[in-house]
TrEMBL record:
TM region positions: 21-41, 61-84, 96-119, 125-148, 160-183, 195-214, 248-273, 285-307, 314-334, 340-360, 381-401, 407-426
One Gene Ontology molecular-function label: transmembrane transporter activity
Main location (coarse class): membrane
Name used for this protein in its record: MFS transporter
Residue ranges of domain Major facilitator superfamily (MFS) profile in the record: 22-431
Subcellular location: Cell membrane
Domain of life according to the entry: Bacteria
Organism listed in the record: Aquabacterium soli
PANTHER family hit by this protein: INNER MEMBRANE METABOLITE TRANSPORT PROTEIN YHJE, SHIKIMATE TRANSPORTER
Record keywords, A-Z: Cell membrane, Membrane, Transmembrane, Transmembrane helix, Transport
Membrane topology: Multi-pass membrane protein
Coiled coil: none
Any GO CC annotation of this UniProt entry: plasma membrane
Amino acid sequence: MTPSASASAAPAPAQRNKPATVLFASLIGTTVEFFDFYIYATAAVLVFPKLFFPSSDPTAATLQSLITFALAFFARPVGSAVFGHFGDRIGRKATLVGALLTMGLSTVAIGLLPTYAAIGTLAPLLLAICRFGQGFGLGGEWGGAVLLATENAPPGKRAWYGMFPQLGAPIGFFLSGGIFLWLGEVLTEEQFFSFGWRIPFIASALLVLVGLWVRFKISETPVFQNVLTHDTRVKVPVVTVFKQHTRVLVLGTLAALATFVLFYLMTVFALSWGTSALKYTRREFLEIQLFSVLFFALAIPLSAVLADRFGRRLTLILVSAAIVVFGFLMAPMFSSGNALSVTLFLSVGLALMGMTYGPLGTYLSELFPTAVRYTGSSMTFNFAGILGASLAPYAATALASTHGLAYVGYYLSISAGISLAALLLAGRASEGDFNA
């Protein structure tokens, strides 16, 4: 074979993505996904109990609504397995587009659903189906967005790149809370429950279009392109994860447990308890939460800097220990109902959330080799969602109603203790084969 023929037969070098494009593509996708997820969480507390369930027992209606909220967390591992399979077989880019479309269409459909007054028991059934679609899409979105960032990261900045998709969480929450706050200002209560609550769900289509546009502009990550070049893909990634990476899967899931419990106690449960037991209006409590979310957003880049300097695992260990202590402050700080105390409590809690959430995506992705990284990191994250978030608002409401807020704090401290133990047992992440 001639030198020219050899050159023509060699695989073309992977196209490098521009850092700004990569970071924006990873950020916008998770912003869209979490915006969609949080508008459901807010509506599950404020809207759905009144419109999609029998109104004879308000407490039962709220608990039923929270069960549909939990449904998405059980759908997420299914989405992880399906989208993870294609992400590890075909590529990150195409799979991310499919995940974004799945969740976007499910969210818009919720905004178009008829209510219980119109179609009876079929209304909550359709709501549950759409909620499953949201969870299914997010199950494939998060892992791909993290890999899009970390697999394009230069040496020494993987946690910094990996925190950009994590920033989508506070931004999505801020946008979702902000739009509900705005609707409360411009609409009457009757207008809000008649049609206003539908606006965030339908309007999410605009954010989905932006996310799709930027993701079509990126090329495959160089790390996965290397897998394609050397054809080191596995046939069924989910089987490989369960058979060859069982210990990592279990410990990684438990390491992320506290992150989920903390966040959903600070958001969904706090909103429900604050607007019922503490007698805050919807507007008052959303304003407090939106202020507190700023500390969540600020803590994420800080944690990434620390994680790149001192290590992802050490950062997570220290923050998990702090969350154990924080759990004991719930009753004295939150139960009083004092606005300053409640704001301080939520601000500290969400700051701790940012400190654990920032390096989490990078840490979990480093636990798995490239050939199964999409599937492994996604399933680890979403199994933690089932254990830590799916029933957290429901369990916390039951605990607070029966035993008092102190027991909700104990619930948080125990969860953080489990995460701390898992991180200590897991040892240092292998960091996979990012540089393969």
